[in-house]
Amino acid sequence: MPRTSTIPVRSRACASSSACATGIEIEDATWEKLRALAREYRLDAVLDLA
Fold first, then answer.
1. Which residues, at least 6 apart from 43, have a Cβ–Cβ distance to it below 8 Å?
2. Are 5 and 28 a contacting pair, CB within 8 Å?
3. Residue 44, helix vs strand vs coil
4. Which residue in 1, 8, 9, 10 sits closest to 29, CA to CA?
5. Which residues touch 34 (CB under 8 Å, ≥6 apart)?
6. Of 2, 12, 37, 46, which has the most beta carbons under 10 Å away?
7. How far apart are CA 19 and CA 38, in angstroms?
8. In whole angstroms, what is the distance from residue 38 CA to residue 17 CA?
């Protein structure tokens, strides 16, 4: 089974309530692809994906 990380996501309707916070699981391979794209476009530091 691939390793995953969970990132918090809030809907606009629940923006002020921490009780509405949910998460989305992202596979580590997907994070690596995002980091590679960010490096390619020199956005890794801006997007905090270094």
1. 49
2. yes
3. coil
4. 1
5. 49
6. 37
7. 32
8. 31
Structure tokens at 23: 């998460």
Distances (CA, A) of 47 to 2, 13, 19, 31, 38: 24, 25, 26, 12, 8
In this prediction the pTM is 0.56
Rounded to whole angstroms, the Cα distance separating 29 from 39 reads 15
Helix then strand then coil, % of the chain, to nearest 5: 40, 25, 40
Report strand pairing: 22-27 vs 4-9.
antiparallel
